[in-house]
Fold this protein.
Amino acid sequence: MYSTWRKELIPDVLNLLLGVGLFISPWLLGFSGERTPSWNAWGSGIAIAALALAALTAFEWEEWIALAVGVWVTLSPWLMQFSNSAAATPVHVIAGTVVALIAAIRIWYTHSGHPQVTA
C-alpha cells in the first residue's frame, strides 16, 4: 500500500517542483526585467504549484486544470508575444509541455482502468 501511494505522488511532486522552478526562472535565467514573460512565469508557476498541492491532497479535478495550465504555459510565448526572448521562451515551452504531459498521462491512467464486473 505504501509503495503504491508513493508512486502516485511522483507526478504531483514533479509538478510542484516544475511550478517552483518556473516561478523562480525569471531571476535564475535573467529575464526578470522583461515584464510579460516574468509575470507569466510567476503566475503560471504559482498555478502549477497550487494544483500540485491540490493533487497531493487527493482532489480529482486538478489534473484537467493542470493540463490546461500546461498547454497555456507552452503556448504563452506566442500568445503573450514574448517568443523573441531567448531565456523565457524555452523555459515556458519545456515546463508547460512537461506539466501537460504529466497531467495527460495521469488522466489517461485514471480513465483507462478496466470496468469492474459486479454480480
Notes: The chain is about 75% helix and 0% strand.
